[in-house]
């Protein structure tokens, strides 16, 4: 596989959310209240949606970009994090990008956090910025049985899985490639979860589009979801792996 073109991206800005919302048939667009800031965010958008799958695009973007949040920031769904994540849990954040999610959780007492992203540029920058946490350059589709990582009590993704669908023409039917990449990713997640562990997925994608990709017969976990946000709702999915 050519990692330059097909590896996974990490986090999106709010302006990016607007672009992908259009792709997924969602009419509600979100922009920054300040017009200048909105235009600055829009200037970082790629020429084509498929560029979100390009490692080169993200490496170039992260050279000059310091922080972007996909979906909402940590404070918006903090009550849900504290509900499902324990302070002593071993936590893995997938596609961390330059989001402050891990750093804010760390400041709140969740101090056993590992962050991964496929962009070596952002991993190097975040390692220097937050040396108190661990950072690894890894592709979330190929983590199954990763001995370097071990197992986790909680695995979190915030908008990272949404990028897998950017090339699809319809949210109702994903392409074979998208389905394959989603399955590889959820296989990786399931293999890294301890019995009783939780996979947390934060996204704008509604249950009728997303749940089918989490529900596989071989996965022995129970799934529930909650919503947060005003006006435009985001979804907080929790898949809890059953104990033997």
Automatic annotation (TrEMBL):
SUPFAM superfamilies: S-adenosyl-L-methionine-dependent methyltransferases. GO terms for molecular function: methyltransferase activity. The keyword Methyltransferase applies. The keyword Transferase applies. It comes from the Eukaryota. Gene3D superfamilies: Vaccinia Virus protein VP39. Residues 87-205 form the Methyltransferase domain. CDD domains: AdoMet_MTases. Keywords: Methyltransferase, Transferase. InterPro entries: Lys/N-term_MeTrsfase_sf (IPR051419), Methyltranfer_dom (IPR025714), SAM-dependent_MTases_sf (IPR029063). GO terms for biological process: methylation. Belongs to the methyltransferase superfamily. PANTHER family: EEF1A LYSINE METHYLTRANSFERASE 4, SAM-DEPENDENT METHYLTRANSFERASE SUPERFAMILY PROTEIN. This is Methyltransferase domain-containing protein. It comes from Varroa destructor.
């Amino acid at each position: 596989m050519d990692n330059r073109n097909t590896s996974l991206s990490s986090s999106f800005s709010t302006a990016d959310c607007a672009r992908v919302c259009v792709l997924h048939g969602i009419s509600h667009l979100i922009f920054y209240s300040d017009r200048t800031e909105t235009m600055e965010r829009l200037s970082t958008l790629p020429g084509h949606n498929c560029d979100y799958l390009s490692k080169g695009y993200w490496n170039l973007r992260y050279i000059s970009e310091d922080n972007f949040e996909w979906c909402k920031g940590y404070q918006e769904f903090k009550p849900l994090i504290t509900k499902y994540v324990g302070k002593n849990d071993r936590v893995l954040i997938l596609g961390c990008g330059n989001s402050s999610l891990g750093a804010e959780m760390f400041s709140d007492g969740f101090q056993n956090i590992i962050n991964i992203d496929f962009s070596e540029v952002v991993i190097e920058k975040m390692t220097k910025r937050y040396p108190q946490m661990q950072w690894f350059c890894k592709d979330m589709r190929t983590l199954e049985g990763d001995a370097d990582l071990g197992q986790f009590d909680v695995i979190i993704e915030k908008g990272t899985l949404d990028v897998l669908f950017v090339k699809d023409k319809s949210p109702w039917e994903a392409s074979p490639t998208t389905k394959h990449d989603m399955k590889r990713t959820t296989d990786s997640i399931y293999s890294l979860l301890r019995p009783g562990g939780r996979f947390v997925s934060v996204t704008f994608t509604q249950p009728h589009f997303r749940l089918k990709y989490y529900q596989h017969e071989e996965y022995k976990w129970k799934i529930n979801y909650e919503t947060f946000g005003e006006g435009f709702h985001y979804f907080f999915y929790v898949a809890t792996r059953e104990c033997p």
